[in-house]
Design brief:
Number of strands: 11
CATH topology: Mannose-Binding Protein A, Chain A
Low-confidence stretches: 1-24
Organism: Caenispirillum bisanense
Radius of gyration: 15 Å
CATH class: Alpha Beta
Mean pLDDT: 78
CATH architecture: Roll
Shape: globular
Number of helices: 3
Keywords: Signal
Protein name: C-type lectin domain-containing protein
Length: about 180
């Protein structure tokens, strides 16, 4: 029963995100895309320059980009190898808070990737010691969205994951093009 309800939630969220209009882009700069053989995907780091975005806006902007006939999405970082790839590849550019494709759904207390997969086990050592960053306690104040978006928080050259409230806006987002081949 839970899985069926969860599947319905995923379909509803994916449909709502896909149906939303693309965000009008100002100038943007992207590092990449760069091939990751481990995930069989290309990754890029987009700097929106003067146009900060919420997580939803970054997700729409990523979905409006295409590479090698593959639609972009906010990056899925499912394991430590992928996290290390991102940290190594984008080390010089990843110096600001940066959106990627993970959300914490408060009502079901689960982390979910933009592709609908549940994150069962987080990669070791990726979370900030205070896993959420909101004005109130973890899920208070996110009722309109129902989830807390997750981002890379810059900690003086070391980036870690942290969940945020609904009003956060960042200039950068990690994009992934899951091509399946180079």
């Amino acid at each position: 029963m839970f899985r069926k309800a969860l599947a319905g939630l995923v379909v509803a969220l994916c449909t709502a995100t896909a149906a939303a209009p693309a965000v009008a882009d100002g100038p943007e700069k992207m590092v990449g895309p760069i091939w990751n053989p481990h995930t069989k995907s290309y990754f890029g780091l987009v700097d929106s320059l003067s146009n900060s975005r919420t997580w939803d806006e970054a997700a729409r902007a990523a979905a409006s980009r295409w590479f090698k006939r593959t639609q972009g999405r906010l990056a899925v970082i499912p394991d430590r190898d992928t996290h290390d790839f991102v940290m190594t590849t984008f080390a010089k550019a990843l110096n600001d808070d940066t959106w990627f494709g993970l959300r914490y759904f408060c009502s079901i207390r689960k982390l979910m990737w933009v592709d609908g997969r549940i994150l069962e086990t987080s990669p070791a050592g990726v979370w900030h010691p205070q896993w959420f960053r909101t004005a109130k306690s973890s899920c208070e104040g996110v009722r309109s969205m129902g989830y807390m978006p997750v981002y890379y928080r810059d900690m003086g050259g070391v980036a870690s994951w942290q969940a945020s409230g609904e009003i956060k806006r960042f200039y950068d987002y990690l994009i992934e093009f899951p091509t399946g081949k180079p």
